[in-house]
Amino acid sequence: MSGTNNVATSEKLVLQVGREILMDKALAGVKILECSRLVTGPYCTKLLADLGAETVKIEEPGVGDEARRRGPFPNNIPDSERSGLFLFLNTNKLGITLNLKSPKGMEIFSSLVKEADILIEDYSPEEAKALGLVYESLSKLNPKLVMCSITPFGQTGPYRNYKSYCLNTLHAGGQGYLIPGGVEFLDRPPVKVANFFADFCCGLVAAIAILAALYRVNIKGVGEYIDISKQEALMFYERWGVVRYANENLVVSRATEGYTIGGIMPCKDGFTMFWCVLPHEWERLKKLMGNPAWTEEEKFRDLSSAILHWEEANAYILEWLINYSAAELYHIGQAAGLPFGVVRTAEDLFNSDQMKAREFFVPIQHPAVGTFEYPSAPYKLSETPWCVDHPAPLLGEHNEEVYCQRLGYSKEYLTRLRATGII
Amino acid sequence: MDLLKGIRVADFTHAFAGPTGTQLLALMGAEVIKIESVMQADLATREPRDPIPRATERASIFYATNLSKLSIRLNLKRQEAVELAKRLVKICDIAVENFRPGVMDKLGLGYPALKEIKADIIMVSLSSHGATGPERTYGAYAAHMGPLSGLSYVTGYRDGPPVPIRSISDTLAGVTSMFPVLAALNYRRRSGRGQHIDCSAIESLSICVSDILMDYTMNKRVRCRDGNRHDFMAPHNCYRCKGKDKWVSIVISTEDEWRAFCNAIGNPEWTKDERFKDGPTRWENQEELDRLIEEWTKNHTNYEVTGILQKAGVAAIASFTNEDIVKDAHCKERGIFVEVNQPHAGKQIQMGLPWKLSTTPKAPIRPAPLLGEHNDYVFGKLLGMSRDEIEKLEKEEVIF
Fold first, then answer.
1. DSSP, residue by residue, A172-191
2. Domain map of chain A by residue range?
3. Which residue among A48, A80, A316, B187 has its CA within the 20 to 30 Å range from the CA of A207?
4. Which residues neighbour B287 within 8 Å (Cβ) at sequence distance 6 or greater?
């Protein structure tokens, strides 16, 4: 049996290799220099690196990206080379160490900037200025440089030096205030969207801004500086709510964000999700439930009337839901033309037929942790597919490749730089 | 001088997610042509058979999602209209659609057909579950994306149900779909080749909980809801402030920040308590810590707390309402809001691109289009059709 499996695996590998040779990369030849930490900047860079941009990530010697110290770790044992967060966010990047706080370090950094198309950094405006990460001077070294600075509130304005962790950022952008929707939660604080959600959303906006700037730079031949404020990035996602106050004086709150008929509701083995929005969906739901007697009552006759008695209707519906598993409701609901959904756990998602068919999770091998399945990307490009050529770098893994092969330093010189704490 | 000047987009999208994506392209200076019809107007945001958005709420959202776009009428149920759509695609760089998978193919406007007309077309199809897989034709509203993506299950109170993730499910999907489009545009410039992009709204959310998904693949751990808690930081929560439904978010990571926090609130006796002596101990006792912090925050407005703590170097940000954002001094100074003169609605406050550039001037923002407002420009000027021809097709309910 194992022999058969091996053959199958190796055939698959051959096919994959063959495909990689045929397929081009969307961003081949684009050179990125990244000095950013945790999620937003690294995710922005990962999006570009996974489509083929040649990326060099700079980390602080001996310390590395903060993400290395965040979980999840295999078996919960902290190890800076085994953080699931870091491994996910830094695929396809070469990793070097460089002390930007030393003058020699900045000199080396300048040589790297001269070779780069894009620089991504996430220091606070004060820190960036102190380090010399300033577009006005770096663009003199490389006039076609696209430089992107990512900060909580942007480079200008009274809050430019405000400190903000992911939870704070979520609230700065207006999303945090609205969760969870429903009057029943008003005596409790708003609740965060899980983990780094806000940072991921901001990293995506930065990556789009960079690609648009790159497109123009390639036409005009003039570089660009992009000032990303995480607050503004999140406000773009929340723009419908924002303009409603600006134009209608309507304050959106958890009280205005609730559901009527439906929502996330308990079922036999977990939670189901359905929502009646259109009149015919109400008719289909009644039919699916087998037209129970209560649906004959005048107040439940049509959707507009049922909505006025939504709490009562939901209580009745719950009596029906509780007999079925989430998966059953999902499929019988959809078959009846009703948008039912499953409240999936990570396990449910990983095991779902849909995600398997779409190969959303892909195995990636890494020297320090071995092979695990990673989420890939929410899109598929027909000509230039998303792909991982190499896993996240070990700290300083590519020092020799970058400093010796690209910048032409001798190995002896590299040793001296290492000994003096510069790399 | 706009970022995407000279790029033309055939925008077949309706409702919320797709138009949010093409909104980015329009604000970047691309010529985005919205393909609508009284038979299938942008239903989620326009009223059927009415060129003027009527319901105020929907109008406001429609404006904020369709700024600077053009609109033409094409009744795609008619073959002649499909042929006109093809002629339009021939002079476009990008085509965007967010129908259920299969609908564009049925209309004769699937990628193979469009590629035939315009070999280097970049086409993006955005759907809830993606264009492949057994659930590809399953229906879903924005409210379903959070549950199906894995995000809702890990969002909510420790003792409460999973929480739906509302409008950002749509906007995030739309924005996500534009990243591969811009990558494809850069690729086309280098290679001369277009391509098809299949984007899933659910996966757009799933990718944002990748660390939680990795915890499953690495450790088989199924993470659950944790309120506002963090794995090791405390305090890490929202605290009630003076006023109705007013909150501030406070996060403390380091010992320096903790000392700065204690100083800023006047070093009350409890801050010297053994239960709060270091990070891990504070984390263990965070419920009591949160209660004591709220004793202080509730006597101040959330703006006061933000000011006091940020001055001390502590990460505190008021939980901004949409009203706060519109009135906020920082947002004003950043020039986030612009005035747009919207036909039938008058002066509207709108938002442009979510970033600032040093060398490229911002594209001027034009109002959202009326239904079919640009029929003459698109059919007449771009496609070279005569006035008579256009009128004939209008009468025949093709341009309709």
1. HTTSGGG-S-SGGGTTS---
2. 24-240+361-419, 262-343
3. A80
4. none
What is the nearest CA distance from B82 to chain A, expressed in angstroms?
24
Distance CA A67, CA A84 (A): 9
Structure token digits, residue A70: 């965040």
Parallel/antiparallel/unpaired status of strands A379-381 and A262-267: unpaired
Gap from B154 CA to chain A (nearest CA, Å): 6
Domain A262-343 in this protein, CATH class: alpha beta
Does the beta-carbon distance from A343 to B162 stay under 8 Å? yes
Give me the residue from B249, B317, B334 closest to A154, CB to CB.
B334
Nearest CA-CA partner of B301 in B241, B380, B352, B260: B241
Q: What is the ipTM of this complex?
A: 0.97
Three-class DSSP category at A326: helix
Residue B260 touches chain A, beta carbons under 8 Å: no
Beta carbons of B200 and A379 less than 8 Å apart: yes
CA B112 – CA B119 distance, rounded (Å): 10
Q: What domains sit in chain B, N to C, each tagged with a CATH number? A: 8-208+335-395 (3.40.50.10540), 236-327 (3.30.1540.10)
B57 touches chain A (CB under 8 A): yes
φ, ψ for residue A238, nearest 5 deg: -105, 20
Q: CA B8, CA B207: separation in Å to the nearest integer? A: 30
Minimal C-alpha gap between B230 and chain A (Å):
8
**Residue B113 phi, psi (nearest 5):** -70, -45
- The pLDDT of residue A20 is above 50: no
Whether residue A2 has pLDDT greater than 50: no
Distance, CA of B257 to CA of A311 (rounded, Å): 46
Please list every residue in chain A whose beta carbon sits closer than 8 Å to the beta carbon of residue B245: 186, 253-255
The correct answer on CATH 3.40.50.10540 for the domain covering A24-240+361-419 is yes
Interface test with B, best of A43, A144, A177 (most B CBs within 10 A): A177
The domains spanning A24-240+361-419 and A262-343 adopt the same CATH topology = no
The secondary structure element, H or E, covering residue B122 is: strand B122-127
* pLDDT, tens digit, 9 for 90 and up, residues A139-189: 999 999 999 999 999 999 999 999 999 999 999 999 999 999 888 888 899
Q: Which of B105, B110, B102, B124 is nearest to B24 (CA)?
A: B124
Provide the 3-class DSSP secondary structure of residue B85. helix
Of all helices (H) and strands (E), which one includes residue B228?
A: none
pLDDT tens digits, B158-200: 999 999 887 899 999 999 999 999 999 999 999 999 999 999 9
Give the separation between CA B58 and CA A217, rounded to whole angstroms: 38
pLDDT at residue B370, as a whole number: 87
Contact A307, A300 (CB under 8 A): no
pLDDT tens-digit map of B12-53? 998 889 999 999 999 999 999 999 987 766 655 555 444 454
Out of B141, B197, B230, name the one closest to residue A339 (CB).
Answer: B141
Number of neighbouring beta carbons within 10 Å of residue A226:
22
Rounded Cα gap, residues A39 and B207, in angstroms: 12
pTM: 0.95
d(CA A303, CA B148): 25
* Per-residue pLDDT reduced to its tens digit, B71-101: 999 999 999 999 999 999 999 999 999 999 9
Contact (CB, 8 A) for A380 and B198:
yes
Residue-wise burial string across A113-146, b where 16 or more C-beta atoms lie within 10 A, e elsewhere: beebbbbbbbbbbeebeebebebeebbeebeebb
Question: What does the mean pLDDT of chain A come to?
Answer: 93
